Amino acid sequence: MVSVIQPEDNSDMGFYDDRVLPHILNFMCGMDVDKPFREKACADLTGDVVELGFGSGTNVEFYPDTVTRIAAIEPNDEAWKIAAKRVAGSSVPIDRAGLDGQHLPFDDDSFDHALSTFTMCTIPDLPAALAEVKRVVRDGGTLHFLEHGIAPDEKVRTWQHRLEPMQKRLVGGCHLTRDIPRALADAGLTVESLEQFYEKGAPKSLAAMSLGVARIG
């Protein structure tokens, strides 16, 4: 693991989070190893879709032709700037429609589906965000997800708990120990398909993945 010296000044940390981290995440989230999983997460999406944590738009190339609109929820201005070329080149209309997944600015039953990739780890109040997804997605719709979280192996979990404070500081509040399938079930969503695996090429503490679809209603 690369050792990073953290700035002590909160203003410096704010600059890092706002201006530097989006470029790091754009590189990391755009890696080829993730593309088959992103494509699978986006498969079968149709109609109007709300995407939590749009980031720099690394899912754009995988939207199916059956999607008619993407409402992108993205709080970071720099990430949205990085996404500009992807958004402009998309065959699917994309609007930056909100900044906070915990408070979605939409009427009830506004969307057919929702999409979240590498986002649930960073949302401060995940139950609130999932309640908002349930509210704005029509009954019978789905949440497609690709997320990392708590590992199945005890030794890996031990390291995740040790590393999580540093991970949260370096990666915009990212948690290593969230149990995403359990969080979905606790929010009242029905997990209909689920693949769990370690992503190749990364330390297991960072690479315990959950890929699937959860039904709403």
From TrEMBL:
Keywords of this entry: Methyltransferase, Transferase
SUPFAM superfamilies recorded: S-adenosyl-L-methionine-dependent methyltransferases
Methyltransferase type domain location: 51-144
Molecular functions per Gene Ontology: S-adenosylmethionine-dependent methyltransferase activity
InterPro entries xref list: Methyltransf_11 (IPR013216), SAM-dependent_MTases_sf (IPR029063), Thiol_S-MT (IPR052356)
Listed GO biological process terms: methylation
Name recorded for this polypeptide: Putative methyltransferase
